[in-house]
Here is the input.
Amino acid sequence: MSRKIRRRSFLKSAVSGGGAIGLSAMQYSRVYGANRRMGIASVGVGGKGWSDLTGVAASPEVEVVALCDIDSSEQHLGRAAKQYPAARQHADWRRLLDDAKDIQGILVSTPDFMHAPVALAAMQDGKHVFCQKPLTHTVHEARQMRLAAEKFNAVTQMCNQIQSHSAYRTAVHMVHSGLIGKVRQVHSWQGGTPRWPRHIPRPPGRDTVPTNVRWDLWQGVAPERPYKVGMYHPFNWRGWQAYGTGQLGDFGCHILDPVFKSLKLSAPTRIKANAPAMQPETWTDRSTVEYEFPGTQYTTDDTLRLTWYDASGVTPPRESLGDVPADYKLPGAGSVLVGEKGSLVIPHVAMPRLFPEADFPADELPVVEGVNHYTQWADACVGKGKTTSSFDYAGPLTETVLLGTIGIRFPGEQLTWDADDLKITNHAMAQNWIKKQYRKNWQPTWV
Here is the structure.
């Protein structure tokens, strides 16, 4: 079967190793050599895709050679084409991969539900991959992304870019240096109000698809549905279960990242959520998720409890935050690590705070310089350093976040997780959400 035909059926041998895959990603790095820039392509160039593309393209190591978006308007493919006029233009990412000899790295900035299909196919073709958060739409896909990156020697990076900000790097260093001692518990939250639809039914009827939108391609692996103006593309897809992952999925890979990094957490063993019963197709407007993890060298006990909260204006209970004073205004989103010697507040994109403040004079606290998350990936692709959110790290983080979204579907029920077997051992209905069904002719073959 030709490469072109295989891609039309979503590269069914993507991770199975069932067919020829050409050069590995590491071989590509050696082939194009020091005298050439790495060719990159971007799939999804509107919205966050624009900043991903321009962020990576700022590296002197890369050249933008191809662009792909289902929307040809000035806010999407049109703008990117003006910025990079020499780059080839595509509406279908599969066609981009059909003509990819000069491409060594691919950016995946599609809606959540298309991350794995595009990234897995790219890695099979020997490409390095930079992928938006959350890494995938399902737990099973996250595991496959990690395994595929290892199998195909891909240089990878998930775009939870705040990980590279001075604030998050400093917070991780504070924990590793023992400033608050070992940690007893963690509280993390997102108290903002999402702009996308939530807790609503599907709207009736259909609207005429704009001439600039390839709605058939936008739906990708998801079940077909009628187009509705402003309801799915270009932004509101986040609130729909078929496309996005709700508030936890949207922010968890950001806010939980410094917690994972600092405490060196692995997979949770138990998850229990409280949330309103969901509408059949949209995510709820609020939830609380309790995770239990095995303890690490940075925790006081054999297990660690991490509690996630999301709702408009929500913050954790003040009595649970250790040394954080009652008159301190908590940030709208972030985490508190309660330790033996004090409490560490990690705001979402602001420098951390330590309490009690008298024990931590500001002029004596460490500050770790930030790095460029985008060019870090480009540098690593050409053998200069390593990425800090490669799929071997981002995969387990995403699995944890998405396990929480499964818990939200079964409020009040404790789920027991066996990470090695990729199985919720005590709840068959919850286990059904580890994977999902794909549209006909889009079903991949997994490891």
The first helix runs from residue 3 to 8. The chain has 14 helices and 15 strands. The radius of gyration is 22 Å. Residues 107 and 130 are 5 Å apart (CA to CA).
